[in-house]
Design goal:
alpha/beta, elongated, 5-stranded parallel beta sheet, 7-stranded mixed beta sheet, FAD/NAD(P)-binding domain
């Protein structure tokens, strides 16, 4: 590591938070180096928006925009200011001393004065046939009701929401604004959600609970047409006609590569101990986007924290490594 390449700022990630941080950092002449990640079955450079066909709630796009097109614009804007990009993962880090040390997937070792972690979070999927294909093609399968639920495809239709926690309750209640009927499919005979969320859900006449049931297959060519479900007690299978399905069984923050290098919350998200700041437990390391946000998880809030992290990194460097 003695001959490792040295950088002033390394940004890890390639979603709205990472590219916004890169835009701000590059314009501040910090010469950021972005590790945008590599391609895998569940994630591609650009983050979760690469699996979102239509974005209608991001300011500045009155006609809507596809997720991949939005991320391409974000990336191009960062490149306009000479941001350098490596299409690879950061596999491990060592934040125990100065400078900060990172190792990329191809074995490249580098050091940095500051690091912004914006690696996002992966939605948990069911892993059943048809789910990934229709989610990636915009065929009515999604893991974000707030992102996609208002699209015309779901209006006045029968929608399934899979899950039993607060996130599932929030998604189901949100979809009652648009759907004719919302089927909440849960593998147990009682919900895990908080009492108040359960009461709100059960009081809504558009909601129907489907207990002790798991989804085994998502069926449809271009769009979802029905789901094949199984009763967990009897093993009996049947098909239910639906026009959309939202999977609400949680998210997994992409923090595995950090090891014990930084403080995490009990749920695995990066801890930011100072309210309304992006500072982490390690001086000179900042976190932005869904990897530190387990509450909002929206593109616009991710971009905002990316701006904040870049400004904090710039200030940290200008002050000689002091807050």
């Amino acid at each position: 590591m003695d001959e490792a390449r040295h950088e002033r700022l390394v940004i890890i990630g390639s979603g709205p938070a990472a590219w916004t941080a890169a835009i701000y950092a590059a314009r501040a002449q910090l010469e950021p180096l972005v590790y945008e990640g590599s391609f895998s079955a569940t994630m591609v450079p650009g983050g979760q928006l690469m699996f979102t066909t239509e974005v209608e709630n991001y300011p500045g796009f009155p006609a809507g925009v596809s997720g991949p097109a939005m991320m391409a614009d974000f990336r191009d804007q960062a490149l306009r200011f000479d941001t350098r990009v490596v299409t690879d993962n950061v596999d491990s880090v060592d934040f125990s001393g100065r400078p900060l040390r990172l190792t990329a997937g191809d074995g490249t070792e580098l050091t940095a004065d500051t690091v912004i972690i914006a690696t996002g979070a992966n939605a948990r999927w069911l892993g059943v046939p048809g789910e990934e294909r229709l989610a990636q093609s915009g065929g009515g399968v999604s893991a974000c009701a707030v992102c996609d639920g208002a699209l015309p495809h779901f209006r006045g239709k029968v929608i399934a929401v899979v899950g039993g926690g607060d996130s599932a309750m929030e998604d189901a209640l949100y979809m009652t604004k648009f759907a004719s009927e919302v089927l909440v499919i849960h593998r147990r005979d009682e919900l895990r959600a908080s009492k108040i969320m359960q009461e709100r859900l059960l009081a809504n006449p558009k909601v129907k609970l489907v207990w002790n049931t798991v989804v085994r297959e998502v069926i449809g060519d271009d769009v979802i047409e029905r789901i094949r479900v199984e009763d967990v007690n009897t093993g009996e299978q049947r098909e239910i006609a639906v026009d959309g399905m939202f999977v609400a069984i949680g998210h997994v923050p992409n923090t595995g590569f950090l090891g014990n290098a930084i403080e995490l919350k009990p749920n695995g998200y990066i801890a930011t101990p100072v309210p309304w700041r992006t500072v982490t437990s390690v001086p000179g390391v900042f976190a932005a986007g869904d990897v530190m946000d387990d509450f909002y998880r929206q593109a616009v809030t991710a971009a905002g924290t990316g701006c904040m992290a870049a400004l904090e990194a710039e200030r940290w460097l200008a002050h000689g490594g002091e807050e």
